[in-house]
Amino acid sequence: MIISLREGIEAALVIAVMLSYLRRSGQHDLKRFVVWGAIIAVIASVGVALAMNLIWGIVEGPILATFEGVVVLLAALLLTTMILWMWNAGASITSEIEESVERKSLSQSGAGIALLSFSLVMREGVELVLFTAALVIQEGLGTYIGMTLGLLIAIGLGAAIYQGSLRISLGSLFRWTSVFLILVAAGMVAYGVHELQEAGLLLIGPLEMWNINPPPLPDGTFPLLHENGLIGGLAKAIFGYNGNPSFLEVTGYGLYLLGVLVYYLRKNRVRPVGNLSEAEEVAKSVSA
Q1: What is the pLDDT of residues 73-112, one digit of tens each?
Q2: Residue 93: its pLDDT value, please?
Q3: What CA–CA distance (Å, rounded) separates 120 from 112?
Q4: pTM of the model
Q5: Residue 184 and residue 5 in contact, taking contact as beta carbons nearer than 8 Å
Q6: Structural domain includes residue 217
Q7: DSSP structural state of residue 164
Q8: 6: which residues sit within 8 A by CB, 6+ positions away?
Q9: What pLDDT shows up at residue 166?
Q10: Which residues, other chains included, contact 46 with Cβ-Cβ below 8 Å and sequence gap of 6+?
């Protein structure tokens, strides 16, 4: 839900920036191209999701484990680059979007504006498909329910922000969801390594560092803290928790968090104090 909320809000803010610029410049007739570009991008994203499901239905055994491991690791990489890009983009992203809309609108290029809207929303859609695919591998029904809830909330928030009826601290929202998503990405790294090892790849070091999974209950169910139990299963689905991880899983998880922490500390040491976050700048532009 949080991942889809974050991606949905990003897409909604992109559309809001484009519509707000056209509103301020009095070019209301071009708004429909923004909307149609976004709708086509959503349909195309669904097509990507269906294609991935088709692949899942074809492959099996070690090939399936390898495919799932690669998908999860790729999702972790993409999620990380998205977060780092957000940190680095700063206030420039809003002006870049508005400049692109201005160039298209000056030439009265409705198709160009639709293509711009399509490309920006499609990026968010493909990211969401890949992230949720990595989670579907671990828990299907819960992922679909959470994704639906997150997108519905994002649509409502985006519409309220555009209409000017809602004022929220988007900077704080993006900041705290970034922390959450970093932990999710670290879990994806560990889980991706686990899947590749299940496929017989990356067999480096001990395959079980420890085992803290409680034994099954007499009735065959799992205790709450077992990785297949209620609490442990939730932690496994969200953060990649594993009660009996391998050496490479633990190493990958730790090195990922260490690398992101070092990057964050170095970036904030040199970041200008007055620099607005992307979310804050977007909100300022939309409200204007």
Answers
A1: 888 888 888 778 777 765 556 666 667 676 666 555 678 8
A2: 60
A3: 12
A4: 0.69
A5: no
A6: no
A7: T
A8: 150, 174, 177, 181
A9: 56
A10: none
Residue 113 in any domain: the answer is yes
The pLDDT of residue 275 is 44
Q: Other CB atoms closer than 10 Å to residue 12's CB: what's the count?
A: 25
Contact 207, 72 (CB under 8 A): no
Position 259 scores a pLDDT of 92
Overall domain count for the chain: 1
At which residue do the structure tokens 């809830």 appear? Answer: 149
| Residue 241 placed within a domain | no
Please indicate, yes or no, if residue 281 is contained in any of the structural domains: yes
Contact 121, 38 (CB under 8 A): yes
Instruction: Tokens for 101, please give them.
Output: 């809309």
| Of the candidates 207, 233, 231, 229, the residue with the CA atom closest to the CA atom of residue 219 | 229
Q: Are 130 and 4 in contact (CB under 8 A)?
A: no
37: tokens are 């570009």
Rg (CA), the chain: 21
Q: 278-287 vs 92-106: helix axis angle to the nearest 10?
A: 50
Q: Nearest-CA neighbor of 2 among 137, 235, 179?
A: 179
Helix residue spans in the chain (DSSP H):
2-24, 31-58, 61-89, 92-106, 110-136, 140-163, 170-198, 230-239, 247-270, 278-287
Separation in Å, CA 45 to CA 2, 25, 130, 237: 19, 31, 10, 23
Residues of the chain where predicted confidence (pLDDT) is lower than 50: 272-279, 282-283, 285-287
Specify the pLDDT at position 274.
43
Give yes or no for a contact between 88 and 10, defined as CB atoms under 8 angstroms apart: no
Phi, psi for residue 281 in degrees, rounded to 5:
-70, -40
Parent domain of 45: 2-169+273-287
SS (H, E, C) 190-222: HHHHHHHHHCCCCCCCCCCCCCCCCCCCCCCCC
Residues 6+ apart with CB under 8 A from 173: 9, 279
